[in-house]
Fold DNA polymerase III subunit gamma/tau.
Amino acid sequence: MNNLVIYRKYRPQNFSDVVGQEHIVRTLTNALKMGRVAHAYLFTGPRGTGKTTVARLLAKAVNCLSRPSGVEKEKKKGFEPCNRCPACQEINQGRSLDLIEIDAASNRGIDEIRELRDGIKFSPSKLQYKVFIIDEVHQLTKEAFNALLKTLEEPPAHAIFILATTEIHKVPQTIISRCQKFDFRKVPLDKIIGRLNWLAEQEKVKIEPEALELIALNGDGSIRDSESLLGQVMSMEDENITLKEVQDILGVIDISAVGKLIDFLADKKSGEAIAHINQIANEGYDLVQYAKSLVNYLRKMLMLKIDPNLAKLTAAELTKEQIDGIIRQGEKFSPVALIKTIHLFIEAANEVKRADFPQLPLELAIVECCQSN
Ligand SMILES: [Zn+2]
């Protein structure tokens, strides 16, 4: 099974199926219910958090023939596309000529945008609105942005633009100010686990809860990455998938392996810490990945030490128990010692990549960390 098969097969057909991003779904579906449609939207946020999924749902919803034309007060929920009318079906089957998707990563140039500008004058072939989804819009050249801006300044009544980007700082302010902007966030761990659980059920595959959690952790808040990892794991065609198998496939360090090292550091047990690193390396784990996980973990510890309320921002993908565990560990370090430890391991993480003995930079950092303070 191809890794993206699962992701595509179960792509949400309704706004209510979108995982996370409740704030965006609520605003959009309420606006649709009131008959309010903007001509330009800008979806920004990390990869795999649902930007193009929501863009396609929006394209379908604005064209759905059961769309209400004015205020509808009785129903509490926002508007959902019906998925039954000809417009919905045409879009669901991917054969609508009025939904145009452009990947700016591969079509960076002015020619494509000029073509778009010329094409936009023509009315939609069948649907009410012609919808242009421009993915990775920050990749456009300066000339292409200028051409796009001209179009956004005077969009024809039948056109809607949905721009998506992972790097908002590369999008010119003049473009941003013409769009209704929506910030997509990393999806919290429990939501990703819930989704993966549901997918596994649909595919009739049994997976240990710890294994699902590890997959979700690796997805790092990205639904697409998490689902594609699940697809990779499922491609073993094993009916009972264990944590060990997932660890082997992903070649990753689960958070407890990183936590263990931090315990040794807190207690200044340099011998045990070095033995731990070597054991990890001998088991075939990638030390570059390990060092990265370590720095990421220390960062979370620092943030939680400053203010436990930062958990929502910096550790949304962790469980409550994991967050509490990190807070308790953090109490063993003085702020100065923790900052120094982070500096030491950032440097070590950079050196692991090009070291002849990848353990060595980590071992040095361990010794230095345990000697001082
Ligand atoms: Zn419909």
In short: The radius of gyration is 24 Å. The first helix runs from residue 5 to 9. Residues 64-66, 81-82, 84-85, 87-88 surround zinc ion (CB under 6 Å). The chain has three domains: 21-183, 189-250, 255-371.
